[in-house]
Design brief:
This protein has about 160 residues and is α+β, with helices and mostly antiparallel strands. It has a single domain (about 5-135), classed as Aspartate Aminotransferase, domain 1, CATH 3.90.1150. About 30% of the residues lie in helices and about 20% in strands. It is built from three helices and six strands. The chain has helices spanning about 5-15, 15-30, 105-120, and strands at about 35-40, 45-50, 55-60, 65-70, 90-95, 130-135. Strands 5-4-3-2-1-6 form a six-stranded antiparallel β-sheet. A hairpin with a 3-residue loop joins strand 2 and strand 3. Helix 1 runs antiparallel to helix 2 (about 15-30) and helix 2 (about 15-30) packs across helix 3 (about 105-120). The chain is globular, with a radius of gyration of 19 Å. The chain starts with a helix and ends in a 26-residue tail after the last strand.
Length: about 160
């Protein structure tokens, strides 16, 4: 089963406000980039990918969280991020029941994450096995050059 269908099932299983909110978030992400790739990772996490992870979403008991792995590098003029603000990389948005979505702020973060990933696409090993994806990319991705491993000095016992 592809990732989009798994995400559909996940959203259908959330019959409360969290499912409605996640459906709205998914729709907004696709409005920003209709070609964004949906993935299903970590045993049940919807992930949106474009040259690397743009964001991921999780429904918790009392809130819904959208996390941007490179959020610390993204401009947030609308001050949408409200969680994980002290981290060196990740930033997140938490919504509780009844919270409104800052549509323009969220779309701006998605656009900025896509642009950041496009400037430096995520490197993948040529033989890497990925999680379930909704669609395959048309062109193969370039892999980043790896640094040569540092030479290890032989361990010598003291005399």
């Amino acid at each position: 089963m592809d990732a989009s269908k798994l995400i559909d099932q996940k959203l259908a299983s959330l019959s409360d406000w969290r499912g409605e909110l996640l459906r709205s978030l998914r729709r907004l992400i696709h409005e920003v980039d209709p070609t964004i790739v949906e993935e299903w990772k970590w045993m049940g996490t919807p992930v949106w990918n474009r040259d690397g992870i743009v964001c991921l979403a999780n429904a918790h008991n009392h809130h819904v969280k959208v996390t941007f792995p490179k959020g610390a590098k993204l401009p947030d003029p609308k001050r949408v991020f409200n969680a994980e603000l002290e981290g060196k990389a990740w930033r997140a948005i938490d919504w509780s029941q009844g919270d409104a979505i800052n549509v323009e702020g969220l779309k701006g973060l998605v656009r900025a994450a896509i642009a950041l990933n496009g400037a430096k696409p995520a490197a993948r090993k040529p033989d890497a096995v990925s999680s379930v994806s909704a669609k395959k990319r048309a062109a193969p991705r370039a892999t980043a050059k790896q640094k040569p491993a540092a030479k290890k000095k032989p361990h010598r016992l003291p005399r």
